[in-house]
Sequence to fold (270 residues):
Amino acid sequence: MNLRERATEIKGIFYSSCKDIIDEPPSFEIIPDIKYADYGTIFEEGIKFIDGSFLNFLEEIKEEDIGRYGYEYIRPDTGFFFHYQNEGIENGIRKPLNHLHVGILKKYANGNLLDYLPEELKEHKGPHFKAPEIKFNEFMGMIIVCFFADNRSCEDMIRSLGV
Amino acid sequence: MTQKPRTIEKSIFREKKIKASVSSIKKKHSGHLQSCVAGKPVKSIQEMGAPFHIMDKEDIEKELSRIKEIFNMNPDEFYKAWKEDKVHGFHALKFGCLYEYYRNAYA
Fold:
């Protein structure tokens, strides 16, 4: 997989497979690698779904594979988020290479809710949960079955994503 | 075997004052990319007709200027903190990647 091929796949997910739940078709920023045009980084923030939730996306394409990645899904109505990532930094069980964050973002949480939450559920203060390396189509599939299960295209989207 | 967080030795923004907001980033089209491997031109991402914007130096500097707003650090302080696992989240990853790219390409 090179940068162009991956860009085409990403476009397919948002413009075809999952278009029924995407509020506004996103545009993406790309930084081609300085040495190898086939490598590079693709990212975009605030890709909005039809219910007001959104995701942040980043992938680094390197050596014909996905290297570092960050897939974050946020629900502003509650502040709930989950974030799978590989930052290319590994520090034993303190920070497994592939890990997951789950919690509530203060920016979106209702003030009263924050009073009841333990600190470890706020922002990224909880553990770096060790997780298997996740693919973006799997990440999208999780969002669909958890938050868009009632959408008439749910099964079609899951099928199209191949998950 | 675990990999210890690394730190960098020199600043990439010693003489620079970067000030801008992301909303001011201009969308520009780039030309053909040159494949360093094969030495032949390859079709640019823009020419795929896809919604992709290739960032240039100015765009990256504008993005990196948001580090102050989000993490209240200068880019060098931020990068060190990121490598030492003191800052987290999507923006930390994004700015870390952008910082490394900028350092390798322009510093």
